[in-house]
Amino acid sequence: MFDNLDIEKDPYVLHLRSRLDKLASVDVAEDNTVLVDVAERGQLESDRLERERLEKERLTSALAKAVRKKSTITFDAMKKLVQSGRDTFIELGAWATDWFIAHSVSKLLRPIDAEEFSFFDSKRSTNETRYLRKILEDVEIPATSLSPDDVAAGVADQIDKLVQVLLEEKATTERHDEAYSGIIFVKLRTAAMLVAQILKYHPATRDTFKVGFLVGWSNDERRRNVLDLVVGAGNEQDQLQTLQQFREGEINLMIATSVLEEGLDVPICNNVVRFNRPDNITSWVQSRGRARAKRSSFVVMFNNIENGTFIVQQLMALEEQMNAKYRDAMRERTVEPPQREGNQQYYRVAETG
Question: Which of 274, 293, 308 is the last residue of a domain?
Answer without folding.
Answer: 308
